[in-house]
Amino acid sequence: MNALWIGVLGTSAIAFTLKYLGHSIPEKYLTNPRMLRINTLIPIALLSALVGVQTITEKGKWVIDQRLAGVAVALIALSLKAPYFVVVISAAITSAVIYRI
């Protein structure tokens, strides 16, 4: 068994343990208003981090290219309260035009 499979089995065991422990937490801690606010913000933080990493890095190195311009246009469209379709299409068109330049 090589190191890759040891890593896969180890992380699987850790994930199972965390999920099991999560089910054994008393309900009074899960219904705490502070905990509920934190739980609603976790997906937003994770998605923002994913967008940031995918936008400005490539193969572990910092890269500033057309993707950053597309995200900037999307942020501008979102700040102007544009519909989701307009946000995605404007970001895609901006990235494609800058890529072709």
Automatic annotation (TrEMBL):
Pfam annotation, one family: AzlD
Keywords for the protein's UniProt record, in alphabetical order: Membrane, Transmembrane, Transmembrane helix
Membrane-spanning ranges: 39-56, 68-99
Protein name: Unannotated protein
Upper lineage: unclassified sequences, metagenomes, ecological metagenomes
